[in-house]
Amino acid sequence: MHNAFKQVLAAAGFALACAPMSASAFLQNWKFDPDGSGSASAFTVNEYLDYIGNSYIQNSISGSSFTFSDNGVFVVSGNDGTPWVGLNAKPVEITGLLQNATGSGTLGGSFTFNPGGTLTLYSHAGFDYGSTNGFFGANNGTPFATLSLVGGGGVVNTSGLPNGNISMIFAFTNLSCGYAFDSLGNDLCTLVPSLPPILFGFTTTNASYVANPSTNVKQEVAVELSCGGVANCGYGTSFNQPPTNFIVSNNGQFRLIPEPATLALLGGGLVALGLRRRKALA
């Protein structure tokens, strides 16, 4: 039964990942506690967490085609379009570190991400995002979630710069307890280890080229994070020069899937489906 159940869950996860990402596919009215102290002090997220950040793109171009790497940082700035002030404010900073995202595309066309990049989320009381601590202050504090990039993409212009929305689909591979809950207060950490990884994470960004990045963005995000400390990443005077290499700013929304009805299925409906599947295969 265990294997049959996991096959059904995998099929459900694949269907969700391939379906159009409409509002109905997202978990709504979920709860988030930035310091991981539990559901009692968590606040409600109607649909999404807001984030802003920077990343460094390096392209290898052959004719009109290219392959790329993407490394970046971000900080959660609020939820549902509202900054974290007033009742929702806590003395905690939520940051993320994106490493080793790769993909391929066509200049003046579309691009896609390969599976395998890693996003790590941190909870930190230090409020040092944008500093020279670690990587731009994005990897300081307590790591409470790890996500793996499973897909996504967007479009670029003939200069290789992103144009419009970019999707990055992630899956939770680890989630500490005490941070994220469904609308009933059930801790989502109990679901992450047992689900197929495609089932859980999704984020979108709007990316735009930064012609004059700050010193810390250049040093911490490009040189340190993306290029292993190599000055100007070996590009010399061509540092931050599209389409070969460039810095982008990102802003977007971090959402969770599946919808509540799908979560409810995990409690009984999919078990029954798994049993029927096992019977049919017998």
Automatic annotation (TrEMBL):
Pfam family, one: PEP-CTERM
Alphabetical list of InterPro entries matching this protein: Ice-binding_C
Record has Signal as a keyword: yes
Domain Ice-binding protein C-terminal: 257-278
Keywords, alphabetical: Signal
Domain of life of the source: Bacteria
Signal peptide segment: 1-25
Protein name according to UniProt: Flocculation-associated PEP-CTERM protein PepA
